[in-house]
Predict the 3D structure of the following.
Amino acid sequence: MYITDDIRYIGVNDHKIDLFEGQYVVPDGMAYNSYVILDYKVAVMDTVDRNFTHEWLDKLAKVLGDRKPDYLVVHHMEPDHSANILNFMKLYPEAEIVSSAAAFRVMNNYFGTDFADRRVVVGEGDTLPLGRHVLQFITAPMVHWPEVIMSYEKTDKVLFSADGFGKFGALDAYDDDWACEARRYYFGIVGKFGDKVQALLKKAAGLDIRTICPLHGPILKENLGYYLDLYNTWSAYEPETDGVAIFYTSVYGHTKEAAEKLVPLLKAEGCPKIAITDLARDDMAEAVEDAFRYSKIVLATTTYNGGIFPFMQTFIEELKERNYQKRTIGLIENGSWAPQAAKIMKNMLEGGKDLTFAENTVRILGALNDASNAALKGLAQELCAEYEKPGAEELAKQDPKAMFKIGYGLYVVTTNDGKKDNGCIVNTVVQLTSTPNRVAVCINKQNYTHHIVEQTGILNLNVLSVEAPFSVFQEYGFVSGRAVDKFAGKTLERSGNGLLYLDKYINAYLSLKVEEHTDMGTHGLFICSVTESKVVSSAETMTYSYYQSNVKPRPPKAGEGEAKKKGWVCTVCGYVYEGEELPPDFICPLCKHGAADFEKLQ
Ligand code: FEO
């Protein structure tokens, strides 16, 4: 590969590596870059990892043709770049090594020689003329080891930037977003040394750079201001993205619930961007990257063995190690009897430069309750005080009643848990394709039926007709099959899959086999194939709107029955919630519809 007429690429792609530097996952592999400058003198820029000796030497030989290299320029002594120094020096006995004094000391450690009679020691500002091309050296200690140098080729205006501007990923892997993996690489590997990178950027500002050749990742030729600006932001520890990143650990799901509930609360307060990370399951390096990317973070964890949960402990240590600073931090703690996680997290981070802690700390005693929900709201309001709430104009665009205009049928899903038959009412069913015949069924995860379908992979869909009375909905929709046997005393036929189908109030049934399941948060979506189907009546299908107009009992009016109570009535099944305010996440205990389906009793 040509970088310029005289500068060639001879690096390699590593797709076998599992963990880069023994800790970073690299799903797209890793590139170890090396270059050759062909001039009156020939300079080779760095070697590659030990697993690619012959591939690299072959590439080098091909570029050299019948020439021999004069110099091996070593910018960095970490073995992913230096492993083949000795192999190179044996193969080309006329060549000399050009590097910093510190690098030769490290060479002695790795190879038992510092090449005393074949070396050229260079420091800040030194130059190495090659003919038409001249290399000028720039010291870059701690970007990422102390011996690091960079070099600037004055004629073609190329910066050989060592680990600087590197990223995870092999060069032959598809990648349309440099910043994502470059940011994870930067904060994982160089992030601790922001001041050193700042010093380097000041030196680079005086150079006319047209191309950046890093030791990892793509060669950068266009829009260099973009990369330099990002490096400036990262190394100055300035936030790159205005918004809130939430990091949580959760033992039994309650802290996770709080973290997840915070997301819509932040949105409602106008937060421009939100990220959420499960520290036990998501990539820790990605989490560290996000903590430095966002202007505000929220840490949510449990009190654990007198301290905090291990993944949060590790995460905070990772942040401190990299001089975490200039951010606002919100804290959520959970503890069943003596929560102290917030205090411990704050103590761990205190002393960090320009860290501000939110005044609203959320305390959860095991599970969320009214007090901790209110505290969550308070935290969201405090973190978003500077943002404009979604304006009236935006809200006016959202007419929730528009959702009611979508047409639905109503169905009884019949299943069997291995011991008994079960049934529940659903309305979210649609045929997706006819060839192959695929039907989607969405079921609330709180329903026992969801659990059975997930376990068994089969279900029958009974298509209710307009003949179905309200009692059918009470029977299958308002009680849980875990608590009662909905088919006790009934004698019904079974379809070929062994599941029951109703003998009346339906116009057809379909036997379904689950092909795919997608977790939709509150619901599970089952994509099913049809194994059997039969029309049993010519009656019209019961639609949701027909049910609302003709089947469901009329909600009580003021002064009548339930209406004497103060509260909210479920427009689907008539359940009455007593209380002035209906919680926005309230789910009807009978029919499992949400707060949007409730109306205030007048
Ligand atoms: Fe790519 Fe610091 O070695």
Summary: The pocket of MU-OXO-diiron is lined by residues 76, 78, 80-81, 144, 163, 215-216 (CB under 6 Å). The radius of gyration is 33 Å.
